[in-house]
Design goal:
The protein is mainly beta. The chain contains no helices and eleven strands. A hairpin with a 4-residue loop joins strand 5 and strand 6.
Length: about 110
């Protein structure tokens, strides 16, 4: 399976970040699969942000305080992270992943005016 993140590399404070993960080699709807968004904040470890399951159920990290949402397009085999009210503290490398085994290459997002 291959995953590829896409989206803007620079976002202004207060804007909404939208990142899309394009999946090949597996279907979003394969029974049992969980598709994750994870980020690596500067100087910190990996932070799990949220997930969408094969059936479309979602879950999010409480630390994001309801700023995050995840949607999917099963026709295009893509899932998308939306993160509202961006601040400079959201500057990070963002990854999409299948479970904990397969990660995309990551996309660096900087929040700055």
């Amino acid at each position: 399976v291959q995953l590829q993140e896409s989206g803007p590399g620079l976002v202004e404070p207060s804007q909404t970040l939208s990142l899309t993960c394009t999946v090949s080699g597996a279907s979003l709807t394969t029974n049992g699969y969980v598709w994750n968004w994870i980020r690596h904040l500067p100087g910190e470890g990996l932070q799990w942000m949220g997930a969408i399951t094969y059936s479309g159920n979602t879950a999010y990290s409480p630390s994001l305080k309801s700023r995050a949402s995840i949607s999917r397009d099963t026709f295009s085999n893509q899932f998308t992270l939306h993160l509202r009210a961006m601040t400079p503290e959201d500057t990070a490398v963002y990854y999409c992943a299948l479970g904990v085994d397969s990660f995309g290459q990551g996309i660096r997002v900087t929040v700055s005016s």
